[in-house]
Amino acid sequence: MARPNPPVIHLLVAMVVVLVPVFLIVAWFTRIPEPQPNVVDARPVVAAAREAGYPVLAPAELPDGWVATRARWTPRGRAGLNREPVPGNTIALGFLSPERQYFAIDQRDALPELLVRDVTRDGRADGESRVGDVTWTRYVSQDRRTRALVRLDADHATIVSGDVRYDQLEAFTATLR
To answer: What pLDDT sits at residue 1?
Structure first.
């Protein structure tokens, strides 16, 4: 004896019973929480570098919402990130803006060309910026993603960099003291 086809409503209920748990599982496991930045206090690092006689440039006052995410002072000859002695006194500071854009300040008192090459990712000069009464050389990376403002003084180099526009770098650089 031939069995009749089930009514359409039974097919729809069966599909809902199967698909609802699948959709719930997919929704649950595809949620990606917003990563929280690793906030550090840059003041003790800046103070240690200044006590050692290093002319550190650091933000004097940043608007609300800015956080320090990197602060590292490495005296000449101590092991750096690559476990090799750094060629000069080196300070590295990093800040995250409220828009979650990263700004870095890297300073060293030896081998400025090497520092510029590393921080700008083998960038090339791209004009100049005037911040206050100081002229900074603009650099842009080969892929044009990272921009930097470079200041070479007689005894040290300072580089402000980020994957942002030059006007944003200039505004951040204006906070340095």
So the answer is: 65
